[in-house]
Amino acid sequence: MNPYPNSGTYPVPGEQDMMPTVEIRPFTYQISNLQGIGTCERQEDSFGFVNALDDEKISRRGLLAVLADGMGGMSGGKLASETTVATMRGDFEEFDMSGDIPRQLCSAAAKADDIVFGQLAGKGGSTLIACLFYREKLYFVSAGDSFLYLMRNGSLYRINAEHNVLHRKFEDRIADKDISLRSITNERENRAVTRYIGCGKLRDPDRFVRPLPLYVGDIVMLCSDGVANVLPPERIVEALESPSVDEMCRMMNAEISDNPTGQYRDNYTALLIRCAY
Amino acid sequence: MGYTTCPNGHLYDPEQYASCPHCNGGSNMIDFTGGGYPQGTIAPGSFGGDYPQGTVAPNGFGGGGVQNEKIMGTHADPSAGFNPDEVNKTVAPSDYSGGPSKTIAVFEAEQGFVPVVGWLVCTEGNKEEKGKSFNLLSKRNKIGRDRESDVRITGDNAISGYNASIAFDEEECSFTLIPSDTANNVRINGKAVYVPTTIVAYDEIRLGVTHLVFVPFCSERFSWGKKAEDKV
Ligand SMILES: [Zn+2]
Question: Which of A83, A232, A266, B218 is the most buried (most CB within 10 A)?
Answer without folding.
Answer: A266
